[in-house]
Automatic annotation (TrEMBL):
Residues 520-532, 588-600 have a biased composition (Polar residues). Residues 365-395, 404-433 form the 4Fe-4S ferredoxin-type domain. Keywords: 4Fe-4S, Electron transport, Iron, Iron-sulfur, Metal-binding, Repeat, Transport. This is Electron transport complex, RnfABCDGE type, C subunit. NCBIfam families: PRK05035.1 (NF003454), rnfC (TIGR01945).
Length: 630
């Protein structure tokens, strides 16, 4: 707020600091001797698919497809640019790299349109009435028609019109040498330009429309004044400004027209100001009233290397080579400059296609650059700088890559007007140093932003993992506390398998006995005798099993069978035991729970005669016990 008040309270009195008065001849008369002329159709047009911010356009047509003039060819992927349309009718031959109209001169993808010479157009869009159409609809039409700033920056006009302003300034100063396209366009289309400015004012809600034009364009000034008188809009004001470079820069024009100095760290929209080029207003009028997209513009073809300097109405995408040919060809060895000699840049190929921002093509003699000498601290650059910078200090810090110092000395306030380099007696290309430093700072800042983003992501991930670990620990602590309070509350029931037990005699009770059966009438005596008999039967069965096992071993030749070593009396005693059971009969295997299967374990040790004798004795004892129990 304080800066705004100071800017209002300390006006510049229609003067800005520094600047350069370029003495005549200014080379403008070379191309203004005749009206503008429509350029002949080229055999081929190349439409760049690279946006201002470096991202790629989204092509809406494919190779082999026929298109008409005004048809949509590509759309931007963001709001940093505007759509592009076909400059004439023909066939899309390919998408291939061509030199870009850019200081880098790098090949980028282009849509190659082969003209069919018919120049057929799509039907124009419906005309809109600015008086009854709301601002949003007008902005949408301007955006759909691909209107961008034609003064050189190429910023999307619809986006720029999205900021409300009280005063709309129309820049018609055209302060650079050689460039005359705005001059001739105003002479020939003054009324359309004013109507376009009225449409823009309607969108912005502006109460003032102020034209600024240098006083070396008397015919254009007269044309504007006549058109303004016919339109009779009280918001209109036509003002001439002194011919002093760079009066066409936005901030300097605000000072000259309004006496307001906008601080370098502020936007003009913060002060209710907005500036548009006069050619842009003509494109706005064509889009809203005529329904035509931007496919044509006024371009100056001039310089000492051109045989017939003139202003052509060219189609976007026309190659430089064709435009030079239509201006009578070139003479001598020349440099190709896009823009003016002060702020323009050199292209290296005549195959480079001109795009929407190509306001001028200059052919200047190819002279060797002057030899650079050390700075002598003469301060001429500081005296001439319109932004009141210290170019010599910026040079030192640029050479030593002191980015922090460059920012402190307001490097980004430099408008790259080239005055410092023009007045430098040491022929130091100061602007080139500044451009390089700006790029290096941008790259360093981008790297720092990427590192900060990575650090933020890492910290967020670490915090998330710690939070999840804390949540898991809290759950475990709560579960542990619950278990301590009631150990059995949350314990799952475990499956306990049944133990494998060997049947005991108690599992097989003897059959019930009728009263009076047995050796006594007492029930207790009967039960006891039954138990003893069962036990004796089990022991006898074990003995028989041992005897059979010994017999099998003897038959296999692994050991002598017990019967082979037993005396005949024992053999005879053992044989009847094999068939005796409980009560003198056979004992069922299921009742005695006797293991009768052959042992598959390793063969037992060989039975000696003593072992067989012992087994026979045990069997006899078992039989005796069984008989006694019976």
């Amino acid at each position: 707020m304080i800066k705004k008040l100071l800017a209002r309270l300390l006006p510049s009195k229609n003067h800005f600091h520094g600047g350069l008065h370029i003495t005549p001849p200014r080379h403008k008369s070379m191309s203004t001797g005749a009206p503008s002329r429509e350029a002949a159709l080229s055999a081929e047009y190349a439409i760049s698919l690279r946006q201002r911010d470096g991202s790629a356009y989204l092509a809406k047509v494919a190779p082999g497809e026929r298109v008409l003039r005004g048809q949509l060819l590509a759309e931007p992927v963001n709001s940093q640019d505007a759509p592009v349309h076909a400059p004439t009718s023909g066939t899309i031959r390919a998408i291939e790299p061509r030199p870009e109209m850019h200081p880098a001169n790098q090949p980028v993808p282009h849509l190659i349109l082969a003209s069919d010479g018919k120049d057929e157009s799509v039907p124009p869009l419906t005309a809109l009435d600015p008086a009854t159409t709301d601002a949003d609809a007008l902005r949408e039409r301007i955006a759909a028609c691909g209107i961008v700033g034609l003064g050189g920056a190429g910023f999307p006009t619809a986006r720029k019109l999205g900021h409300p302003a009280n005063t709309l300034v129309i820049n018609a100063a055209e302060c650079e040498p050689y460039i005359t396209c705005d001059d001739l366009q105003i002479r020939e289309n003054a009324a359309d330009i004013i109507h376009g400015a009225q449409i823009a004012a309607k969108i912005l809600g502006a109460e003032h429309i102020h034209f600024g034009i240098e006083d070396d364009k008397p015919q254009a000034i007269a044309a504007l004044e006549r058109a303004a008188a016919d339109i009779n809009d009280p918001r209109l004001k036509i003002s001439s400004v002194p011919t002093r470079y760079p009066s066409g820069n936005t901030r300097q024009l605000f000072e000259l027209l309004l006496g307001v100095r906008v601080p370098a760290d502020q936007h003009a929209s913060d002060y209710g100001l907005i500036c548009h080029n006069s050619g842009t207003m003509k494109a706005v009028y064509d889009a809203v009233i005529r329904g035509e997209p931007l496919t044509e513009r006024y371009t100056t073809i001039s310089g000492e290397g051109v045989n017939q300097p003139q202003v052509l109405r060219i189609r976007t995408g026309a190659p430089v080579r064709d435009l030079i040919a239509q201006a009578g060809g070139e003479k001598g060895d020349n440099r190709y400059i896009i823009g003016g000699p002060m702020m323009g840049y050199q292209i290296i190929s005549a195959d480079t296609p001109l795009q929407k921002t190509g306001n001028s093509l200059l052919l200047l003699p190819a002279i060797a650059p002057a030899e650079e000498s050390p700075c002598i601290r003469c301060s001429r650059c500081a005296d001439a700088c319109p932004m009141e910078l210290l170019p010599q200090q910026l040079l030192w810090y640029s050479q030593s890559d002191e980015h922090k110092r460059l920012k402190q000395y307001r490097l980004y306030d430099c408008i790259e007007c080239g005055i410092c380099a023009a007045v430098c007696p040491s022929a130091i290309p100061l602007v080139q140093y500044y451009r390089h430093s700006k790029g290096a700072i941008r790259a360093a800042d981008e790297k720092a932003r990427a590192a900060e983003h990575a650090r933020t992501r890492h910290e967020a991930r670490t915090a998330r993992l710690e939070r999840e670990a804390a949540e898991r620990q809290a759950q475990m602590d709560a579960r542990r506390a619950k278990l301590q309070q009631n150990p059995a509350a949350d314990k799952p029931e475990r499956y306990t398998p049944a133990k494998e037990t060997t049947a005991s005699p108690a599992d097989f009770p003897p059959p019930p006995m009728e009263e009076g059966q047995g050796w006594g009438s007492s029930a207790n005596l009967a039960a006891e005798s039954s138990t003893d008999a069962k036990t004796a039967a089990i022991e006898a069965a074990k003995a028989r099993a041992a005897a059979r096992r010994a017999e099998r071993l003897a038959q296999n030749g692994e050991a002598k069978t017990p019967t082979a070593v037993m005396p005949p009396p024992l053999q005879g005693a053992l044989a009847p035991a094999a068939g005796e059971g409980w009560g003198g009969g056979n004992v069922p295997a299921s009742s005695a729970n006797i293991e009768t299967t052959t042992d598959t374990a390793p063969a037992p040790h060989q039975l000696l005669p003593d072992d067989a004798k012992t087994a026979a004795i045990e069997a006899a004892k078992a039989r005796a016990s069984a008989r006694k129990a019976a």
